[in-house]
UniProtKB/TrEMBL annotation, chain B:
Organism classification: Bacteria, Pseudomonadati, Pseudomonadota, Alphaproteobacteria, Rhodobacterales
Gene3D superfamilies according to UniProt: FAD/NAD(P)-binding domain, Flavocytochrome c sulphide dehydrogenase, flavin-binding domain
Domain Flavocytochrome c sulphide dehydrogenase flavin-binding: 358-424
Domain FAD/NAD(P)-binding: 34-149
Membrane-spanning intervals of the chain: none
Organism: Sinisalibacter aestuarii
Region called Disordered, residue ranges: 385-405
Pfam families according to UniProt: FCSD-flav_bind, FCSD_central, Pyr_redox_2
Protein known as: Cytochrome c
Length: 110, 426
């Protein structure tokens, strides 16, 4: 499943261009934009990923750490309560996009 | 065009605003128009606030029923005496400060052909796009011999507020060794695990204050959400206190005697001191009356944009809609509100909507330090139906895992703080 989704990121920029060019009804932009996925993440991880109680902060964390965590949850190599149930469909490109997105949202609280 | 479609663009946009924990640059700077949002719950507040955040060129009017919103999530903690009602009540001040035109003037009618909403005051508002998030109404006619006023005696507590307090007070005033009946409806209904979390937290209260009392679930169905996890928790924490009577064992409600606090089913009669009668439900009446439910009782939508299958320029989110495989939860409604806001901002800029992932997580507390969950990831398929993605989701691991239960209870509280902060917080 992951493999056949792997090309989607590559299609993303192209697909967006095509969608914008046609701009009409029925057209759908390809790819999974990290801004949309992030809207689900922040429901638990706090507005902008600032964390909430026992739920960890994402904003401003190093992208490599966020990527490693998400990859570990997806591949079952990292223990979790719930994250392994939420990361199954993510491609490597999805994970990189989400990690960069939250990493860029400001430095973590000291 | 500043839509975030690539990593490079995402870094460019957000990097410019380094230091802010929030998305600082609008994603849809060219979008404009007027969006009217009907309903100020998890779906409506989420959609309204997200629209202002990602597309400040769009003006947003949010029509709400009351100056404050009382959340159904965590209302079971109020019923169980674990939180005060003021802890689950939120104002719309933060939305106002971000430019949402919040009006305590509920919509009474929607005219999709004229693209107009009629308000209780008689005012009429025109819109470019409407977001309908009115929640549910009760189907009193689906219960034998009762009308809406039965809730004054047999509270539903399925819309939070005065009903929540009525049920709490009845439970606290119950005689020693008394019985509480919870009567949940058949599917579909708002918050599938809700009645069973409620049974749990009532049992938690009773185990401390009225330990010989009983909780009886006289159910309109045979199976329920997270059933194995709930029942294992009841066995461990409240042995013998909670009984589940599936539909097949009672055959359905035949007569309800509110004065005598008695429910007659086709096979058996049940008497109690407190009856929590949760009626069958439909999309709220404004959706039915506007024709958004077609010939059914729920609103069919396009899973990509949440646009109604029955009316153009009208989007339906939250409990009133059938959203593919997504459950009727506050989390789902909030996620749908956010993604619907992106879709509308995209459409109002003349662009094509995007096929994102949508997630849901429902935590339930079996006790204050004992949490369980169900989760799912959804994406609209080729027919634009939001389908559960294979290999994702499911419930917490079964078995004896005390640390996992404690962690999930902590995460439940973290989730509630997060979602209410995101929707209503300053």
């Amino acid at each position: 499943m992951i493999d056949h989704r792997r090309n989607r990121f590559v299609c993303m920029a192209l697909g967006a261009g095509l969608a914008l060019a046609t701009g009409g009804s029925g057209a759908v932009a390809e790819g999974v934009p990290s801004t949309i996925t992030a809207e689900s993440c922040t429901t638990c991880h706090g507005p902008g990923g600032i964390g909430s109680g026992a739920i960890p902060r994402l904003a401003g964390e190093p992208a490599a750490d966020l990527s490693a965590a998400l990859t570990g949850f997806r591949d079952g190599t990292r223990e979790s309560t719930i994250m392994s149930r939420l990361t199954g469909p993510l491609t490597d490109e999805d994970i990189a996009g989400i990690a960069d997105y939250f990493s860029s949202l400001g430095a973590p609280a000291q | 065009m500043t839509r975030d479609l690539t990593r490079r663009q995402a870094i460019g946009i957000t990097g410019a605003a380094l230091g802010s924990p929030f998305l600082a640059a609008p994603l849809y700077a060219q979008s404009s128009g007027h969006v009217v949002v009907i309903g100020g719950g998890f779906g409506g507040a989420s959609a309204a606030r997200t629209l202002r955040r990602v597309a400040p060129g769009i003006s947003v009017t949010l029509l709400v029923d009351a100056a404050e919103f009382t959340t159904c999530p965590f209302s079971n903690l109020v019923i169980g005496g674990l939180r005060d009602i003021s802890d689950i009540r939120f104002s719309y001040d933060a939305l106002r400060s971000e430019g949402v035109d919040v009006r305590v003037d509920p919509a009474t009618a929607l005219d999709p052909a004229a693209r107009e909403v009629v308000l209780q005051s008689g005012d009429r508002l025109s819109y470019d796009r409407a977001i309908v998030s009115p929640g549910i109404d009760f189907r009193w006619d689906a219960l034998p011999g009762v009308s809406a006023d039965v809730a004054e005696t047999l509270p539903h507590a399925w819309k939070a507020g005065a009903q929540t307090l009525l049920l709490r007070d009845q439970i606290q005033a119950m005689p020693e060794g008394g019985t509480v009946i919870i009567a949940p409806p058949d599917n579909p209904f708002r918050c599938p695990p809700g009645p069973y979390e409620r049974a749990s937290l009532i049992a938690h209260y009773l185990s401390q204050h009225n330990p010989t009392a009983k909780v009886l679930i006289v159910d309109g169905k045979d199976k329920f959400s997270k059933q194995g996890l709930f029942m294992a928790g009841w066995q461990a924490l409240y042995p013998g206190m909670i009984s589940f009577i599936p539909f097949a064992e009672h055959g359905g409600l035949k007569e309800i005697d509110a004065g005598a606090k008695r429910i007659d089913t086709y096979f058996e009669s049940f008497s109690a001191d407190v009856i929590n009668l949760i009626p069958p439900q439909s999309a709220a009446s404004i959706a039915l009356e506007a024709g958004l439910t077609g010939t059914g009782m729920w609103c069919e939508i396009d899973g990509l944009t949440f646009e109604s299958r029955e009316a153009e320029n009208v989007h339906v989110i939250g409990d009133a809609a059938i959203v593919g495989d997504m459950p009727k939860s506050g989390f789902s409604a909030a996620t749908q509100g956010k993604v619907c806001a992106h879709a509308i901002a995209t459409l109002l800029a003349g662009n094509a909507p995007e096929r994102g992932y949508l997630m849901n997580t429902c935590y339930s507390l079996v006790a204050p330090d004992y949490g369980i969950s169900v989760a799912g990831v959804y994406q609209s398929d080729d027919d634009n139906r939001l389908s559960s993605l294979p290999g994702t989701g499911g419930t917490s691991e079964a078995g004896d895992h005390p640390q996992l239960r404690r962690d999930e209870a902590d995460y439940a509280r973290g989730w509630y703080a997060s979602i209410t902060q995101e929707l209503f917080g300053a």
